Amino acid sequence: MKPLEVVGVTKSFGALTVSKDIHLSLEEGARHAIIGPNGAGKTTFVNLVSGVLRPSKGVIRLAGRDVTRVSPEKRVGYGLVRTFQISSLFPKLTVAQHVGLALSARGGLDARPWGDLRSRPEIMAEAAELLESVGLLPYAGAQVASLAYGVRRLIELAIALALKPKVLLLDEPAAGLPSGDRAVLLQLLLRMPRSVAVLVIEHDMSLVFGFAERISVLVEGAVLTEGSPAEVRSDVRVRNVYLGSRAHA
Question: Is the pLDDT of residue 248 over 50?
Fold first, then answer.
């Protein structure tokens, strides 16, 4: 059973259609990217999959379950976790607190102040293990406000992983990152467990072609083409509407 299926999804606002009959599916462990020029409908598609918007037509399924009319919160419970383009962390909380709160929420525990979390050794241990896996253990006790932007983006990934996703939707994870941090992000994405299907919406072509095993190209709200990185790179239509000279980079 596929972790994510998007079947014939269309979204219209009055007479304006911004998503047109989109079909996309992810196998378990998929490494899939969506690219396209500005205004292609990528943000709308992310909002449709995550439940922020409801489609005018079509069906969205998670592991065979129809979630087309299900709230974003319930979709998280069904295994769909999303990160956002803009960081939304709490500046006065520490890195470990963020992950501990996510772990508590996943377990259905009351996520109260950090003093309560410290009384839960099983959460503390899992938080430490997760932070170590993404290279953030040295920052565990640091307040988010004191950390560089690139570290904050990694914290958001750690929080997403703490929720044990079956489908991880990354909305422009490299946005605002300096080149050095983008290399770190790519290595982290490549180490993601294969139990998680990862869907990345991204403008950074070096990250896309370094990570994705399959790529969909959106243009004017519709899928222009889908294929392997090599097939997309060599597609003349893609080069004309988006990649241009970067196809040879």
Answer: no
